[in-house]
Amino acid sequence: MMEYILAPWPWYVTGPLITLVMYLMLYFGKKFGLSSSMRTVCAIGGAGKVAKFFDFDWKAQVWNLVFIAGTFIGGFIASYYMSNGQPIALSENTLATLSSWNIDGSVSGFIPESIFSWESLLTYKGFMLMIVGGFFVGFGARYADGCTSGHAISGLSNLQLPSLIAVMGFFIGGLFTTYILLPYILG
Predict the structure, then answer these.
(1) pLDDT tens profile 67-106
(2) Using CA atoms, how far apart are residues 165 and 41, in angstroms rounded to an integer?
(3) Domain spans in the chain, listed from the N-terminal domain onward
């Protein structure tokens, strides 16, 4: 039984679970997405005094805090109790691509240690990936009025045209970054 719990869950289990969660959120009039949860955290911290965007009744959005807590608790449980401790198996093609970008194949969890570590943060590559990339992700989520999870899962399930446009933009941006920007930055 434990082997089944530790193995990745099949699509026919996770798909209906996601559907059930989305149905319940729609039923109770809630929107799913991490950026709206972060907005609530910023409002609690007093960001409403600095920016009008954060000036709202955050107490009506307390469920967002439960969502954030569940994200951290779920990640902790998955990492420490449901993981076999082995690094992810990368394909030879992925390792060759990383090598062509001068990134060694040592992976901690899901990320290459040579570019996602405290030591590399102050390098050109680290700065571009973490600081500039983080700014663009944050700006894009705010400009699109939501994050990828909110638009792709919640917005598309609500058949919202702005979410479809946003998701198309996310994919185009991701492809552009992967095939144009990353080889330039890492090469």
Answers:
(1) 888 889 988 888 788 777 676 777 888 878 878 877 775 6
(2) 27
(3) 1-86, 118-187
What pLDDT does 47 receive?
Answer: 87
Cα distances from 65 to residues 19, 28, 44, 71, 87, in angstroms, run 21, 16, 10, 10, 31
Alpha helix locations (H) across the chain?
Answer: 2-6, 11-27, 34-44, 62-81, 92-100, 124-126, 133-143, 148-149, 156-157, 161-176, 182-186
Tell me the whole-structure pTM to 2 decimals: 0.67
Query: CB-based contacts of 90: which residues, under 8 Å, 6+ apart?
Result: 98, 105, 107
Burial class (CB in 10 A: 0-12, 13-18, 19+), 179: exposed
Q: What is the rounded distance in angstroms from the CA atom of residue 26 to the CA atom of residue 154? A: 9
